[in-house]
Structure formats: C-alpha cells, structure tokens
Design a protein that fits this description.
The structure is a homodimer of 439-residue chains.
Chain A (H helix, E strand, L loop, with lengths): L2 E7 L3 H12 L1 H8 L2 E8 L16 E2 L3 H4 L6 E4 L5 H12 L3 E4 L2 H18 L3 E2 L10 H8 L5 E7 L2 H13 L3 H10 L8 H4 L2 H15 L9 E2 L7 H9 L2 E11 L4 E11 L11 E8 L3 E8 L3 H21 L27 E10 L5 H11 L4 E6 L8 E7 L2 E2 H14 L7 E5 L8
Chain lengths: 439, 439
C-alpha cells in the first residue's frame, strides 16, 4: 500500500491533536484514503515535553529544515503560529513543490495575497480547514458544498472565548471581568485574552471566509472591529427585554458592488438560530442565493477539534497522491475570482438598526431632548425602556431604533454630548433585525 | 475554455432547480471551476410545461437514451425519482463510463449495494449530495470534512414535512390532522404525505448517512421506523412540562460492534441544539471522536436548495475534468470499508429512557399498580405528572423513566393491558437524555 509522508512544524496543542488523530484513527483513515499516512518528522523547539501522543523520538527534531528539506515528505503542516517565521517556512515548502496545510488564520488573513499565488504557480495545494471554526468543515462548505451559490450573507460566532464570556455574562449576570477570569481559569482564554476579546481573531477568520466566498484576498485592515470589553450585564439584560440576544458577530453582506465586513457586538433576535449558540461553541450562518440559509455549528478550538480539521486537509491531499493526480485547485477555490478586488465599505456607510443606552440626568424633558436630536438625524425610535431606578445618580434610557445611517448616528451622539443631559458615555450596539427567512 | 457537458434526466422541481443554478450562476460557477458547464440535454416525458428556466427547446428530449447514449455528455444527472427506471438508467450511464449525479435517496438506500460497485469498477464518480439534507452539504462533511473521525452518533431531523407538522402542533396546539392539512395547503406536503410522515423518507436518508460513516451499504429494512401520525398535542405539551421537545429523529449510534439505527418520535431536552430546528428546516447533528459535536442546518428540500446540492456535485466532477484527472473516489468515500458489514441491532435491544402516557381509570391505587409492574421489569420512574382532569372518563398519567430495556418495556406494557385499569392504548415515546457535551 502506498505511503504518504507528512512533516509537521510545531508540536503544540494543534500539532499534538493532529498527530493524535492520524495515529488513533490510523485504520479508519487508511481505509478512507486507500494509503497510509505516515508522520515522518515533527519539528519543535521543545522535543522533551510529553504530549500524550505515542510518537517515536526519532521523528522529533528541533530543526525546521529537517522537515522542509526532506525530499520524501509530501505534505508540510505548519502549526507554529505567528506571522514571519511560518510565512517563510510555508513559502519555502511551496517552492519545493510540497503541499502545505496550515491552521494559521492570522497569517492567511494578513498575508494570504503573498502566499496563494505561490501555491498556484507551483501547482500544489495550500489547505487551511482548521483556520476557521475548528472542527467545523466550513472552509470545505464554502469552497465546494456551496460552490453553486452567490454568497449573500455570512454571520459567524467565530471566537469561542468571547462567546463563552458573553454566555456566562448572560446566564449569571456577572460582569465582563468576572467572566474573563472564569474563562482563563477553565483554559478557554489566555491571560490576557486580547486578540480573542478585541475582535481581531474573529476578523482574521471573517477575512478568510470572505476571500473564499469571492475568490480574492481582502484587505484585512478594512474590516471594522470592535471588542466585547465594554459590554455590561445591564445591556445584555435590556437586550433580552427587547427580545434580543447579544453576541460578538463577524458579519459580511454582499451589497452588489461592495461588501459590508465588520466584527462587533450585535443584538440578534432571541429566536435566531445563532442566538442558541452558547459556551465555547462556534457557528457560521450563511445565506446563499440557492441553498438559502444554512448553519454550521461545532467546537471552534481545542486540540482534538482542530486536529480533526488539519487531518481532513491531509486526507484530502493524500487521496489525490494515492490516485497519482493533482486537482490544482487554487487555495481560494476560484480559477477566476468573482471580483477582481473586494471593496469593503467603511463602517460610516453602514445602515442598520441600533440599541442605545443613554445615562441621563433624572429630569423631566430629557427623553424628549434626546429623541429630538435623534429625529433631526433621521434616526427613528422603535422602542424605549426608561426605568426609574437611578444608577450613580443617573437613569438609564434604553432604546431601539429603526434602520439608520451609522454616519448620522455618530453625528447625533456628538450633539447629544453637547446637550449636557448625559452623565456617561452612551452605549451603542448594532442590531441585526432579520431572523431566518423561509424561502 | 474547456467545456463540461451535462445531461439531465427528469425536468421536475429538482431538475429545474439544478438547471436554474447552472444558468443563473453561470459566471460564478465558471470562475470557480475554470471550465464552462453546459447543459447539453434534458430528458423528460413532459417537455412542454414552463419551468421558468431559459432552456433552449433543442436541449429538451423525451428520450432518455438521447442523454445516456450521447458520447459528448460527461455527467448524467438522474432526477427522475422512483426505483426501477432510474436504477436502469444509472447503471447504463455508469457502464458507458459517465459520471453520475443523483438525488435519489430511496434508490441509494434500497439498492446502493448494486450500484456502488459498478461506479468503482468503471472508475467514475457517483455523487449524491442532494439525497440528504437538501442544500446542506452534509454528504461532503461526512466523506471529507470529518474523514479523520470515528462517527459515534448521528441524529437528524431529516424530513422537513414532518418537522413542519410537529412545529405547528407545538406552537399552536393543533392536532396532527390539522397540521397535515396546513402543510399540504402550503405545498410542504404531498396529499397524502405517507412517506414523509411514516418515517420512511428519514430512514432512507439515515441509511445513506450510516453507509458514508462506515463505508458500507446498510440493510435498509433493519432500520426501525415509526411515524408521527399518533403524536398528539397533549404529548407535546406534557413533554414541554418535563423540559423536552418532541421531534421526529433519525438516530444512529456506534455501539462498538454494531449499530443502533432507528427513526421515530423522540423527546429531546429543550436546550439541545436540535430542539431549535423548526418549520421545514432540516439539521444533522454528529458526534465524532475528534471534531466532537457538530450540527449542519438548512433547507432540506425545495427547488433551489436541492438544485444547489446537485450543482455542487456537478462542480466537483467538472473541476476534475478540467484538470484532466480522476480521483477514483469510491461512492462511499472508503477505499476499504471500516466494517465489512454493518450490523444493526433489533429495536428490542435498545436501552433508552421513555416517556409514557397512560390513560387510566380514575381510582385510588392505579399509579401504584402501574409503577409496580414497571418496577418488576426493571423500569424505574424519574418523574410523574398526574393531572386530575378527566378526558373521556379517564385520567392521563404521564411519566418519564430512567434508562430501561425496550424488551422489558414491551413486556410491561402487555402486562399492564391485562391489569384492567387502562382505558386506552399507552403512548410510548423514546427520550434522548444527552444534550451537548463540552469536551
């Protein structure tokens, strides 16, 4: 039986999970591929720690070149993380004609445009199922399963850490800091969890999903991002009273000639299928013009789920090697991109509904003043909650608006500051009104 | 640019949806494939009706052989439905070396074992993404995305018609017959909706999912099936009081050396992700040993979703034709099956929790008699609702049990009939206790 040799760069959590999947399910995978997948080399600076995987010590090396230069290795698997070092290694491996598998979302989102053409020129595969959604085969769904669709909407809960924090805040009413500490203690968050909670990680993943939907890398910096660190249990509770659930969403919408692409806290209807995605789970909701709405749900991180995704890429490539063929599928699965360039509209051009929480002095006429300024900027109110209880000698005025222009909202908020009735910064959370449509 | 010629057998709902996807998204698909997909022939007995697709009349034929015998057609797409005729056409097309795409779940579930080997011998693809879950790319997820996993559990809402009926019964408290009439009026059900509501359609789809998970066709008749026609709004409501939601589920579990495989109404915890799948939506919940739990949700039927799935298979094959290669992926995506044969345990061997609704005479001591007989058969009760209100001079006694043996349950129910305290048939609904585990 034919053998396919794999070399792994990085023996951390994902590297160990990948090795574990390939070893523990060796028989299943051999049956599916029709060839044996052999882990020929694993490079890591630390080759002493026990990863609870039965790897022959001779397979381990501290020298990355032992993997990249090995002429018998068919597939190089990059699981180091970071940007500069893995970029160098991946480009080197591709140029040597090796297929490359990576889980590195930051690298692909920020430098994909430099890497994809090299894979295409070399006629080798560059696969990255593990870069988005952990064990959920969402990359394959976009590249292949939904390939007959124009993708109209992508909405994702793409970061398990921040979803865990928001879930705990909603369920227990605890403040952000407390939920973060809990997540750190349970190993769901790093300390500090910066890239997870500030929207960067979700934006990296959204950039990858967009590039797969339209066939062209996007400019990562054009994706608006806002984190969850200012979310309070109060806003989660007020949202519930309006029938909404607060999630950190990555949203992309096809506007015909340009895209909306943004990551920020969002109020979604409590009966939206995404509202039920809790704890560390991830989910990606897509709307295609033929498939309609669909959702992909599962564990977005962790040793075994991510190992499952990396191994699925290895299996895909190994199936081709077994058959002696090369699909020459470009990394983004478009021989010709749908758009030459994806242009992302600035956040100021967004039109959506809003949730506001104003902290106002407790005097008659305040609501009328606020709504007057909103009205002057074409922002119309759909619901208001005004509660008597004072918080720090001010009262919260909570409202939902109909669809309005973000640029008008920003102007109105500045004017409101000048009014001298607000006692604290206004909380603004964007709302996605639309639930699931039945077509 | 290279052309890939497609011939379609059957120009009904799915045929029209497929043609529509290929035509409306022609540019997107050409960009993704790197070749042009041409609909060269469509065969149907009715070539007069308007399908609202811009097809050149010369493409239409009433003679199936015009498609199968055309040497320029690369891919034959079977969308006729039924068993004998499509089987003949598919086998003929395969033997002529053509790739075949089909949406025919009944044919694959009942006769797959006759068809798959022919595709393998001929080295051509036999693809059937549209056979399960409509627009949801679940076949690809099992064949490829989760290929590194041992599949432990499959639980699916695989029939949109019955899910719509149960959703309406739960939301409106209306009886089965009323919900069926509504589904028929909305075009979600045929009149009568036999195969949808009796579990047969869901069992066909479950058979296909099992065969993909283990690499070998299953004996369709070994899958236990029970429909929803005996479900009452009372049982749905009592279930809710216990914290459960009633769904028609297709369930398969890996017991190590054999499988559980069954389709019947199930009480699932109201916070299970499947409990939120309503209306005509389908969803497939999988547990793999590496990916963990995952869910795939979307529209399981309809012209456009099913067209999306059929077109995705055509695109897959066209990508290979463009590259001048053949993966020789066997239809079930296993070069060697995991099991030689899948053995399905009889329903009598099932161990699960149960929901019972007894209709009993309103006399003291009845509950004690019932629980005594249950206890004698090692069936222990976890919760009881006994309401005073009489229905037809009898009172409902509703209970949940801990895990028990189905064979014991059947024996206990027979003994209870002899007791002479029951006034009507006992309602038995199996319960799935386990929600989503975080690993």
């Amino acid at each position: 039986m034919e053998k396919v040799n794999v070399g792994i760069l990085g023996f951390g959590t994902v590297g160990a999970g990948t090795a574990e999947a390939l070893l523990l399910n060796k028989d299943i995978i051999r049956g599916r591929v029709g060839a044996e997948i052999v882990i020929k080399k694993i490079a890591d600076l630390d080759i002493e720690s026990d990863r609870a995987v039965a790897i022959d010590p001779e397979v381990l090396t501290t020298n990355v070149q032992d993997v990249i230069d090995d002429p018998h290795i068919d597939i190089v698997v990059e699981l180091i993380g970071g940007i500069e070092a893995p970029k160098k290694f991946i480009l080197e491996a591709l140029k040597k004609g090796k297929h490359v598998v990576t889980a590195n979302k930051a690298l692909l989102a920020e430098c994909g445009a430099e890497i994809y053409p090299v894979a295409e020129e070399q006629g080798v595969r560059l696969a990255f199922e593990a870069s988005v959604g952990g064990g959920i085969p969402i990359i394959k769904a976009l590249k292949e399963g939904l390939a007959a669709n124009k993708t109209d909407t992508i909405m994702g809960i793409l970061n398990g850490t921040s979803n865990y924090i928001l879930t705990r805040m909603a369920q227990k009413g605890i403040p952000y800091e407390g939920a973060v500490q809990e997540a750190i203690q349970l190993g769901y968050a790093e300390d500090p969890p910066t890239l997870d909670v500030d929207g960067t990680d979700a934006a990296h993943k959204l950039a990858i999903l967009i590039s797969l939907a339209y066939g062209v890398p996007v400019s990562f910096d054009d994706i608006y991002r806002e984190g969850i660190d200012k979310v309070t249990p109060d806003d989660i509770r007020f949202g519930m009273e309006f029938g909404y659930c607060l999630k950190l969403l990555a949203v992309a919408k096809n506007l015909g000639d340009k895209l909306e692409a943004r990551v920020h806290p969002v109020m979604i209807p409590a009966d939206h299928i995404l509202a039920n995605v809790n704890e560390v789970y991830n989910a990606i909701y897509l709307e295609g013009d033929f498939a309609g709405p669909s959702l992909y749900y599962g564990l977005g991180a962790g040793r075994r789920p991510t190992g499952s995704a990396v191994a699925s890429d290895i299996i895909d490539i190994a199936r081709e090697i077994r058959c002696g063929i090369r699909t020459q599928m470009p990394p983004l699965a478009h021989v010709l991109p749908i758009w030459e360039k994806v242009s992302i509209q600035p956040i100021e051009s967004l039109q959506t509904a809003y949730y506001f929480r104003f902290s106002a002095v407790d005097k008659p006429g305040v609501l009328s003043k606020i709504s007057g300024i909103l009205g002057a900027h074409e922002i119309s109110i759909s619901a208001v909650i005004q509660k008597g209880r004072e918080i720090n000698s001010s009262v919260p005025i909570v409202m939902l608006t109909h669809e309005a222009k973000e640029s008008n909202v920003k102007k109105a908020l500045i004017e409101l500051i000048r009014l001298d009735v607000l006692t604290d910064e206004t909380v603004l959370i964007r709302v996605e009104e639309k639930g699931v449509d039945l077509k």
